[in-house]
Structure formats: C-alpha cells, structure tokens
Amino acid sequence: MDSASGPGGADPTAPEGPTSTTATTSEAAAVGGSTESTAPPSRYESQKRRDWNTFQQYLKNHKPPLTLGRCSGAHVIEFLKYLDQFGKTKVHVAGCPYFGQPNPPAPCACPLKQAWGSLDALIGRLRAAYEENGGRPESNPFGAKAVRIYLREVRESQAKARGVPYEKKKRKRPSSSSTTTTVADVGGSSAAEGGGGGGDGS
Fold it and tell me: Which residues make Cβ contacts (< 8 Å) with residue 32, sequence separation at least 6?
C-alpha cells in the first residue's frame, strides 16, 4: 500500500520568538510541570498507534489466530499483501500497453495496490511500535531480512510498471553556523531544534 505535526493545533515545539519561548519555559518551571505533558500526539505518533492497532486486529482475525510472539517476517509480508486490496496506486501488469508509462493516456484494468513508499513508511512505524510495546529488537518481525527483500522487490517492480524510478533523497545537513543562529533566535533554547515525528512516505 504508498509512507508531522500535532493534530488540532500548532506544533508545540515551533519557536514563536524569544519572549514567548522564555515566558512559556518560566511558567512551566514555576509550577513544576512540563510543556510536553499536555502537548497532543504528533501526526506520526497518531498514525503509528493506528497502524499498530490495525496489525493487532489482523492477528486476531488471522486463521488460525496468531499471537505477536509467534509472528514472523513471513506473516508481516502476508499482512502487506493483504493491505494491497485497499491500495490506490495503479500498478500496470507486464501485458498492459501502458506498462512503464508514468502518465498513461487512458484508463486500464490493471490492479490498484499499495505504493512502495507507503509500505516502507508503514513498516518503519510498526517496527518502532513493536519495540515500544515490549518487543525485543533482535526478534522484531518488521525488521526481518525477508521483509526488507520483499520491500525492495516491490520498489523495483513498481518502478518498472509505473515508469517512476525511486531514488533515495539525500538529506541536507545544516551547517554549524546556521544551527547556532537558529538557537540564538529563540533565546538560546534548544527547543527550536525539537521536531515532531516523521511522516509516512510515499
């Protein structure tokens, strides 16, 4: 299936200027509280919780029912294939005249599937959720080699079918001078660099 700021308001970590940042920090310290205690969950955290609940429900409905402890990489791949039925990305089959065309001129009967980017982001969230819910990193089924291989095969096949190459985006690292300026602009508070959760791709 294709994969973050807090819902319902502005990002609580966004700087508003030296005065408001300092006042907020001082008020929190005066009452012995934390500005993060009442902050709404980020979009990433909300999505991660929904994804985890969906996977838990999938395990319950599995025949035979599965427990998390018995879940393997093969079951994770089975789950990803199950999600394809809810996909919205047209993936042309080899015999389709539009195979490999990024912008087909007319509709076709090829299936809709989950886009690789969405599946990749989903696995990242579920991998984190598994460990946050008591799972051991070494037994995390979402980090299994078989799952990584499956995702790579989906990426390559969809790139050929859709004529859309997938390239890794290089993150631009801010220079030390720009980072210093950002901190200084908010009264020396490191909160300016605090960000929300990552978004889902794809």
Answer: none
